[in-house]
TrEMBL record:
Organism of derivation: Tachysurus vachellii
GO biological process, one term: transcription initiation at RNA polymerase I promoter
The name this protein goes by in its record: RNA polymerase I-specific transcription initiation factor RRN3
Single GO molecular function: RNA polymerase I general transcription initiation factor activity
Sequence similarity: Belongs to the RRN3 family.
Pfam families, per database record: RRN3
């Protein structure tokens, strides 16, 4: 809310003081007499200072703000640090009046004012839990925090109104004061909540604020690997059972009506995951609140928010490998409106097909595209088909340009975006093939046949050798079910030649090749955080293993291997020298968790 009182035009009320005033003490200081000046500093630092004393001091300082230049910086710092937030309305009003006069007369103190206000964005009291006992470092009343935060935002709004350049000075201060990610969940929650609250009345800061918050959340995310979270949760639940301690979380008054996810829930036993879960709750609630007005989606507001989040996504999230949860903020935002989901897919497609982008980003874009199409319930099958109609022709065009050249062999370093796109197509079809053929099996099969997937699978670039084996085997089973492509001959041959090829005998100079599989990454694999995960329950497609897609028996491969031999494999396959390697290490990719199960690798062909 804006400050209603006009502090610039309201004179300070008359006050009565015993002893020398601040004005006289400053005059004596210029003459070399520091006793009264030091006495003022001593009284200002009194931890038991009363409301009436604070008001009296502030009224006097308002009378002489023009004299408080840079040499009085220490004194001003002590005035700014007075314990005014959470005090009586009279104290708050007087402090805001002093603040407005100070920044108007002495802009040199703008940074100090902003730093002081931002320092109140985290609670003074830190709760530490040992067993069932709460240990705190002070007796501060936690119920006062919402009021303290309100007063600080009131002051920031006033400063932003009087000093238009506030945002330029405020953002570096917000960044410098961001708590260490090892701090408690409640400390991080309070700071992030207040940081996002600033963006409501200073919109120019939103993109930078989101970038700062998401960068910190990514730090937590990459330090909480999926396998580690699952192991910790499994062990603790077995030993202690799933428990809920709602007192561990801090709920501000304005958050009470933000829906079931904000009402608490089971905590994460993994400490880093618990902090990330808390921050995801705050960020997702912010996305929801900013995008809706009276529970109705505001299209213009959500478009602006989407543009800000996409910029942050490109800068921070897309280049970060194997993050598990932060990217779901885009997933949630896109669920509000089909146009947002299509815009996000179009953005990923532009990154993927752009040769000016680094290969690693193009591969990541393909991974995001495939995972999004597979997991987003709110994406209709028409949009899935439209994306396949972009991806598959691009793969055919790539094969046209590469399959007969000197680089027509399996090498991730040369063809990374191609293999990532193949895996995105395979992964999408694994999840969406039923929706494609349901309703009209004839039309669905005709569409799948029109994709000419056999040409991609049989190409000399050999994508089945590079894609994650779990994806490859499930895709092969589905293609066999519909009799579209018979992949098992290729899979069997690849399994016999899994060690990396280090020399090429194609002819000419020797070529070093790298046939290690893709560093597979499915960005929207199942969400593990318990409380914030409630936001995705109705919009996320979980994996349902089909009962009718059994892998082909091994004897079928033996019988058909001769019939389906490919000409390009005779004499053209690079001959491999034996090198150190591990086939099993290729299978144990932690990023495959939550995707088609690894059990498909143990099924007989």
């Amino acid at each position: 809310m804006e400050v209603e009182r006009d502090f610039m035009n309201s004179p300070p009320p008359k006050t009565v003081r015993f002893g020398d005033s601040v004005v006289n003490s400053l005059a004596k200081l210029k003459q070399g007499n520091t006793s009264d000046y030091e006495m003022i500093k001593h009284q200002l630092s009194d931890p038991e200072i009363k409301d009436a004393q604070i008001i009296s001091w502030l009224q006097e300082f308002r009378l002489c703000v023009t004299q408080l230049d840079k040499e009085h910086e220490q004194l001003i710092y002590m005035v700014l640090r007075l314990p005014w937030p959470g005090r009586s309305p009279a104290v708050v009003d007087e402090y805001l009046a002093f603040l407005s006069n100070l920044i108007s007369a002495q802009t040199v103190y703008l940074r100090s004012c902003l730093k002081t206000l931002v320092s109140n964005f985290t609670p003074r009291r830190v709760r530490i839990q040992e067993g069932n006992v709460d240990i705190s470092d002070s007796d501060d009343d936690e119920e006062n925090l919402p009021r303290i935060f309100d007063h600080c935002h009131q002051a920031l709004q006033m400063i932003a109104r009087y000093v238009p350049s506030t945002s330029r000075f405020l953002m570096p201060i917000l960044s410098d004061n961001f708590p260490f990610v090892q701090k408690s969940s409640r400390t991080l929650e309070c700071y992030v909540h207040n940081l996002l609250r600033i963006t409501v009345y200073i919109p120019a800061l939103r993109r930078d604020a989101l970038e700062l918050i998401i960068s910190k959340m990514l730090t937590l995310d990459v330090n909480a690997p999926r396998s580690e979270i699952e192991d910790t949760e499994s062990v603790r639940e077995q030993n202690h059972g799933a428990g809920t301690d709602e007192d561990f979380l801090f709920n501000m008054d304005e958050d009470e009506d933000e829906g079931p996810p904000r009402d608490g829930g089971p905590l994460m036993f993994h400490s880093v995951a618990e902090r990330l879960d808390t921050l995801m709750l705050v960020l997702l609630a912010y996305i929801k609140d900013v995008s809706h007005v009276d529970s109705v989606l505001d299209v213009e507001r959500v478009k602006v928010l989407y543009r800000d989040l996409v910029c942050v996504f490109d800068k921070l999230v897309l280049p970060t490998h194997a993050s598990c949860h932060v990217q779901f903020c885009m997933f949630y935002l896109c669920s509000f409106r089909l146009g947002l989901a299509e815009a996000f897919l179009d953005h990923l497609w532009k990154v993927l097909q752009s040769p000016s982008q680094p290969a690693v980003l193009r591969q990541a874009a393909a991974a995001y595209m495939g995972s999004f199409l597979a997991r987003a319930k709110f994406v209709p099958i028409a949009t899935v088909r439209a994306c396949l109609d972009l991806l598959v022709p691009w793969l055919h065009l790539y094969i046209d340009t590469q399959d007969s050249g000197s680089k027509a062999f399996c090498d991730v370093s040369l063809h990374g975006p191609f293999y990532a796109s193949c895996q995105a197509v395979f992964y999408t079809l694994i999840f969406r093939h039923k929706a494609i053929v349901e309703g009209s099996m004839k039309k669905g099969l005709a569409y799948l046949q029109s994709l000419n997937l056999e040409r991609i699978v049989m190409s000399q670039l050999n994508p089945l050798k590079v894609c994650l084996p779990a994806v490859t085997n499930m895709f092969a089973a589905i293609m066999r079910k519909y009799q579209l492509v018979f992949c098992y001959t290729i899979i069997e041959r690849n399994n016999r030649n899994m060690l990396p090829v280090v020399r090429s005998s194609v002819g000419g100079d020797s070529l070093s090749t790298n046939t290690n599989p893709l560093d597979t990454f499915f960005p929207f694999d199942p969400y593990l955080l318990k409380r914030s995960g409630q936001y995705f329950e109705s919009i996320y497609q979980v994996w349902e293993e089909p009962s009718d897609c059994m892998a082909a028996p091994r004897k079928d491969i033996a019988k058909n291997s001769t019939e389906e031999e490919d000409d390009f494999l005779h004499g053209e396959t690079p001959k491999a020298d034996m090198v150190m390697g591990s086939y099993e290490s290729h299978l144990r990719s932690p990023s495959s968790v939550g995707s088609p199960p690894i059990a498909f690798l143990q099924r007989p062909f």
